[in-house]
Write a structure and sequence with these properties.
By secondary structure, the chain is mainly β. The protein has strands at about 5, 10-15, 20-25, 35-40, 45-50, 60, 70-75, 80-85, 90-100, 105-110, 110-115, 120, 125-130. A hairpin with a 5-residue loop joins strand 5 (about 45-50) and strand 6 (about 60). The protein is globular. The N and C termini lie far apart (about 40 Å).
């Protein structure tokens, strides 16, 4: 059974940092696509960052480029999102997602990365105060 579990969310002041983790079970982060999405109340879900777990190539939304870093640790079967210089507009529920197909693809639409999301985690809340 494939499962994704996020952790690391919390409340911080503007300019602070958080590191989100997405622990995967039921599959290995060998050659697939994974991504972080976020959704704030009243807004549509948006792609934040994505990564090819095999080669490690990354993609970021224009709004977070230079501030967020997506990475993965194959030994720990975990994906991470390091968030620095947080802004109030980063406040949202953050979800990790995965496309387990070996030939998966990452596309950029309107400046935001997207993947086919076959699996989702439960989400972790990030709140940034001004």
């Amino acid at each position: 059974q494939v499962q994704l579990v996020e952790s690391g969310g919390g409340s911080v002041q503007a300019g602070g940092s958080l590191r989100l983790s997405c622990a995967a079970s039921g599959y290995t982060l060998s050659s697939n696509c994974m991504a972080w999405f976020r959704q704030a109340p009243g807004k549509e879900r948006e792609g934040v960052a994505a990564i090819y777990t095999g080669g490690g190539t990354t993609y970021y939304a224009d709004s977070v480029k230079g501030r967020f870093t997506i990475s993965r640790d194959k030994a720990k079967n975990t994906m991470y999102l390091q968030m620095n210089s947080l802004k109030p507009e980063d406040t949202a529920m953050y979800y990790c997602a995965a496309d387990l197909r070996r030939g998966c693809g990452i596309k950029v639409v309107a400046g935001r990365p997207e993947i086919r999301s076959d699996y989702w985690g439960q989400g972790t809340q990030v709140t940034v105060s001004s």
